[in-house]
Amino acid sequence: MKKGRVAVFLSGRGSNFVSITRAARAKGSNYTVRLVICDRPEAPGLEKAARMGIPAHFVDPGKFPGKFAYEASIRGLLEREGIELICLAGYMRLVGPVLLERYAGRILNIHPALLPSFPGLDAQARALRHGVKVSGCTVHFVDAGTDTGPIIAQQAVPVRDDDDEAALARRILRQEHRLYPWAISQFFAGRLQIRGRTVIIRKK
Ligand code: GAR
Predict the structure, then answer these.
(1) Residue 30: per-residue pLDDT
(2) pLDDT, tens digit, 9 for 90 and up, residues 140-182
């Protein structure tokens, strides 16, 4: 079976990168992680990539005159590796036109809330402050907005009365680690079809 080729973009810890890569290495997986792109030199995810033997590139946004040049440089790395799908995993930067055009319909993101609630930063803390009883995570296609693209899958997680931000974030993260690899495998199985804002998941 020819496996789909994935690049993971991250800015921090990299736990989703690890779960995506572990799932890729499990028997019967239909994709492989070829590359990590990172915009922060101190990101622990870089070290995790090295340990897992995945080539990782720190691309310094400060070294380029603007987003266009920064993303054009990343696009070169992706094209060299024949990347078919970009997975944002804690990549704290908006994707711009260079990558959105080149990888139209082929960029995914995971967000630690049930979108469209609590897009952007500190989603878990804001959900807690709002007093929601249920939160969760969302995998979606990426468009030019902040966490606004068509939703592929969501997993709800209960919020407990004694939760603090860390406890809720941990409970959500456990579900992120299951949901994201599943969504990627659906993508490469050709089961995801975007119809306007709705993503249809075709059965086998
Ligand atoms: C994850 O919780 C992910 O959902 C979130 O950052 C964390 C990254 O963790 N992403 C966003 O908030 C994007 N808006 P990780 O580096 O351990 O995968």
Answers:
(1) 98
(2) 999 999 999 999 999 999 999 999 999 999 999 999 999 999 9
- Into which CATH architecture does domain 1-104 fall? 3-Layer(aba) Sandwich (3.40)
CA-nearest residue, atom 8 of ligand 1: 90
Q: What are the residues facing 38 on neighbouring strands?
A: 10, 58
The reply to whether 1-104 and 110-204 are identical in fold is yes
Q: Is the pLDDT score of 59 beyond 80?
A: yes
CATH code linked to domain 110-204 = 3.40.50.170
Q: Measure Cα distances from 45 to 11, 53, 118, 189, 203 in Å.
A: 7, 12, 24, 27, 34
State in Å: Cα 123 to ligand 1 middle: 10
Task: Find where tokens 């990101």 sit.
Answer: 43
Residues annotated as part of the active site: 111
Domain residue spans of the chain: 1-104, 110-204
Q: Given a cut of 80, is residue 204 above it in pLDDT?
A: no
Rounded to whole angstroms, the Cα distance separating 200 from 98 reads 27
How many A from CA of 1 to the centre of ligand 1? Answer: 31
Which residue has the CA at smallest separation from atom 6 of ligand 1?
Answer: 90
